[in-house]
Write a structure and sequence with these properties.
Blueprint: H1 6-13, H2 18-65, H3 70-76, H4 84-96, E1 100-105, H5 128-131, E2 136-142, E3 145-155, E4 161-170, H6 171-211, H7 216-232, E5 236-240, E6 246-249, H8 251-257, H9 268-272, H10 276-282, E7 290-294, E8 297-305, E9 311-317, H11 319-357, H12 361-385, H13 389-404, E10 408-411, H14 424-442, E11 449-457, E12 460-467, H15 499-509, E13 513-518, E14 524-530, E15 550-551
Parallel strand pairs: 10-11
Antiparallel strand pairs: 1-4, 2-3, 3-4, 5-6, 5-9, 7-8, 8-9, 10-15, 11-12, 12-14, 13-14
Organism: Streptomyces broussonetiae
Domain PAS: 222-264
Catalytic activity: ATP + protein L-histidine = ADP + protein N-phospho-L-histidine
Length: 558
């Protein structure tokens, strides 16, 4: 059988709960302070009582030596047990309750003593200082035991020293006074200890409530687990205090927000700058799963208040999901375009079949030529004006989708865009979002039309998308660029309210701007200006000879 070590037994004997440990420590501290205070008080008290006893003995000796006939009787009588000096000394001793009053001559011979047999003998302590004219106070051992003594010279009428007076107060009486004071002192110390124990109990109860009666080891373990969890999870966590200052940022939050440890202690506005992200963290925008854009990241934020007046905000990275959602939208758009082409192709095949069955061969050949020429003209017209293949393919696909939805998608006659784009993918995102929003705005309206204009001014690209929809009220023209704002119902796979915000973010990242106003014929007009969007020298002159205005899928006008 194994036995636990002494250290193990000691640990098992200690209380584990915070309440018990705090109470035990507080009581121990209070008891230690009480004992220390009592000791510090008793030490000077003992010295003070000794000093008082010696001064009292000295005062009795001075009073005895001042008796007018005492010096004369010492010089004129013999040292006897019933002599006048013995009678006077005993009277003084009894009246003052001194331990002894000894009168001696210049040889140190006693003329008085509490024990008559000692009269005529030499004193047991050195009387030389008193006989030399000095007053002496001391604690000393004599025939009567340990006493507090006072010695003074005895002078005659001429001031000559004829002897000395020694008065003693038994030291036991001083000790008795000290011992008598100890219970009272201990009572005060006990009262202080009781008050300390009560205060310790109240503090321990408060700590117990705040720590949910956990052990210190449990609290340390929870703290270690919290640190590991906060810095290990792939979700940003931002804790704010009651003043709205950041008090904690885990590693993921620092990565998502682009902040460092220097942000701790600052407000969201100071750390992040003005914007929706700071508004969400500060609680000025309320709700669940709030969308916000920080840099190139799309974040979903939730904020929960805490009991101490602060708050904890969580951030999830939705960038990849939004990219997948946009790719899904692009795929869906392609599918819609293919579906529209398939529907249109089926109609044309039926028409061609009817012409052939009616043996109208010439008309059938002419019909086939017109269809092929129309598609070729549309693709060639877009490719001539927009030399970037990604943008050209995007607009050809959007034109097919627009036709299926009953919307005429046109290219402005001023459209000229060379194949020298610095960020063609970013421009595809900008144009795609603006055209999609325009198609949604005019869907279901009579004579629905969307016009896109892509041109350059030096190395600056200017993109304009106009529609014939209901337009945007002046009071909402800035609000529409806010993350999460949308007038349309969100699709199942993702939330809306990101497209226009991303357009502004992409434009601002390149030092550009996005504005919205009213189109000339009604509806909305979005204008994006992107400085330094083109690489190399200006090639605008190379496109000056292009044809005039032609709608996508239409014949040249004018």
């Amino acid at each position: 059988m194994t036995h636990p070590s002494p250290a193990r037994r000691l640990r098992l004997g200690l209380p584990r709960r915070v309440f018990s440990q705090v109470l035990l420590m507080q009581v121990a501290i209070a008891a230690g302070v009480a004992v220390l205070a009592t000791g510090l008080f008793l030490a000077p008290l003992s010295e003070q009582l000794d000093d008082q006893a010696m001064r009292r003995a000295l005062a009795i000796a001075q009073t005895t030596a001042a008796q007018p006939r005492l010096a004369e009787e010492v010089t004129s009588t013999a040292p006897t047990a019933d002599g006048p000096v013995q009678r006077e000394a005993e009277r003084i001793r009894r009246s003052t309750r001194a331990e002894y009053v000894v009168v001696m001559d210049t040889r140190g011979v006693r003329w008085s003593h509490t024990e008559p047999a000692q009269i005529g003998g030499h004193v047991s302590t050195d009387p030389s200082q008193a006989l030399a004219g000095q007053e002496v106070m001391q604690i000393d051992e004599g025939t009567l035991g340990r006493t507090a003594r006072g010695k003074v010279p005895l002078r005659d009428g001429d001031g000559d020293i004829v002897g000395a007076v020694s008065v003693g107060i038994a030291y036991d009486s001083v000790r008795a006074r000290l011992i008598h004071a100890i219970p009272e002192l201990l009572a005060y110390a006990g009262g202080a200890l009781a008050v300390g124990a009560l205060a310790a109990w109240l503090i321990a109860r408060r700590v117990q409530r705040q720590t949910h009666d956990l052990a210190f080891s449990d609290i340390a373990g929870l703290l270690a687990e919290r640190e590991a969890m906060l810095h290990g999870i792939r979700e940003g966590v931002v804790a704010l205090d009651r003043e709205g200052r950041i008090r904690l940022l885990n590693d993921e939050a620092q990565r998502l927000l682009g902040l460092g440890e220097e942000a701790v202690g600052r407000s969201p506005d100071e750390a992040l700058g003005a914007g929706r992200t700071a508004d969400v963290l500060a609680g000025r925008v309320m709700g669940t799963d709030l969308l916000t854009v920080r840099g190139q990241r799309v974040l979903v934020a939730n904020r929960m208040p805490t009991d101490d007046g602060g708050a904890v905000a969580t951030l999830r990275d939705r960038t990849e999901l939004e990219q997948l959602g946009r790719e899904l939208d692009s795929t869906r758009g392609l599918i819609d375009a293919l579906r529209a082409q398939d529907h249109e192709h089926a109609n044309r095949m039926h028409t061609l079949l009817g012409l052939l069955e009616l043996e109208m061969y010439d008309d059938a050949a002419e019909f086939v030529g017109e269809v092929v020429g129309e598609h070729r003209a549309t693709a060639e017209e877009v490719a001539e004006r927009i030399r970037d293949p990604l943008l050209a393919a995007l607009l050809v696909g959007k034109a097919t989708v627009a036709a299926e939805r009953g919307v005429a998608l046109r290219l402005s006659g001023r459209t000229r865009l060379p194949d020298r784009l610095v960020d063609p993918r970013g421009l595809v995102t900008v144009v795609g979002n603006l055209v999609d929003n325009a198609l949604d705005a005019v869907a279901g309206t009579p004579h629905a039309r969307v016009e896109a204009e892509l041109r350059t001014e030096g190395r600056t690209a200017v993109l304009t998308v106009r529609d014939t929809g209901p337009g945007i009220p002046a009071g909402q023209r800035e609000l529409i660029f806010t993350e999460g704002w949308s007038t349309k119902q969100s699709p199942a796979h993702r939330e809306r309210g990101i497209g226009l915000s991303l357009v502004r973010r992409l434009a601002e990242r390149q030092g550009g701007t996005v504005t919205v106003g009213e189109a000339a014929g009604g509806g909305a007009e979005f204008t994006v200006v992107l400085p330094e969007a083109l690489a190399g020298a200006d090639q605008e002159a190379a496109y000056a000879a292009l044809p005039g205005t032609r709608g996508v899928g239409e014949e040249e006008s004018g």
